[in-house]
């Protein structure tokens, strides 16, 4: 004896996709301007100097002294490049048109291994570039690496977080409350 399925109880393999709402051009420009203005203030702020003989000297791993915009730039698809080997690093994703620091990350793996799986930032970058092309806006997404990073992962994660908070990189989740998540999944 076969049981008849009820119309509203049957599961369906079909899923209705909701169209993704695109950020209007004016909103994109305003979003970028807000980030640019903040990051420019950080660039103009001098790092604190040692004020007495008893203060601990600044570390070369101090987030106040690392300027991602002064590092050598590479392709935004750095994970396909061979030159980075197995070196640990802090890496930065930058739109060099203004410039804007979009993302800060750390890795103890090669950049290639770190980004071969699912990495949301790769989607954010792709969506960011696509929206710029839709509005015929200049976009020059690239990457930069800071290799003089602590070998200790806890220290490296601490430095990464300090850099994320200092620069307010919008693709990092720590800053979504400030800038939203316009290039991520809905």
Task: Please describe what this structure looks like.
With 186 residues, the chain is an alpha+beta fold. The chain has a domain at 71-181: GIY-YIG endonuclease. Helices cover 32% and strands 13% of the residues. It has helices at 25-44, 111-115, 120-134, 153-167, 176-179, and strands at residues 73-75, 89-95, 100-107, 141-146. Strands 1-4-2-3 form a 4-stranded antiparallel beta sheet, with helices on both faces. The radius of gyration is 21 Å and the shape is globular.
Key terms for this structure?
186 residues; alpha+beta; GIY-YIG endonuclease; four-stranded antiparallel beta sheet; 32% helix
Summarize the structure in short.
The chain is built from 5 helices and 4 strands.
């Amino acid at each position: 004896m076969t049981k008849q399925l009820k119309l509203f109880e049957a599961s369906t393999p079909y899923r209705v996709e909701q169209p993704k709402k695109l950020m209007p051009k004016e909103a994109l420009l305003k979003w970028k301007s807000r980030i640019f203005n903040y990051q420019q203030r950080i660039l103009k702020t001098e790092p604190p100097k040692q004020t007495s003989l008893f203060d601990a000297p600044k570390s070369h791993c101090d987030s106040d002294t690392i300027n991602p915009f002064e590092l050598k730039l590479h392709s935004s698809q750095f994970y396909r490049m061979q030159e980075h080997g197995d070196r640990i690093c802090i890496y930065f994703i930058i739109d060099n048109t203004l410039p804007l620091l979009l993302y800060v990350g750390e890795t103890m793996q090669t950049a290639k291994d770190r980004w071969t799986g699912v990495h949301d930032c790769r989607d954010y970058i792709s969506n960011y570039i696509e929206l710029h092309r839709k509005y015929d806006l200049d976009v020059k997404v690239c990457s930069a690496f800071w290799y003089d990073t602590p070998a200790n992962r806890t220290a490296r994660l601490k430095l990464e977080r300090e850099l994320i908070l200092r620069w307010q990189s919008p693709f990092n989740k720590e800053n979504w409350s400030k800038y939203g998540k316009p290039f991520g999944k809905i």
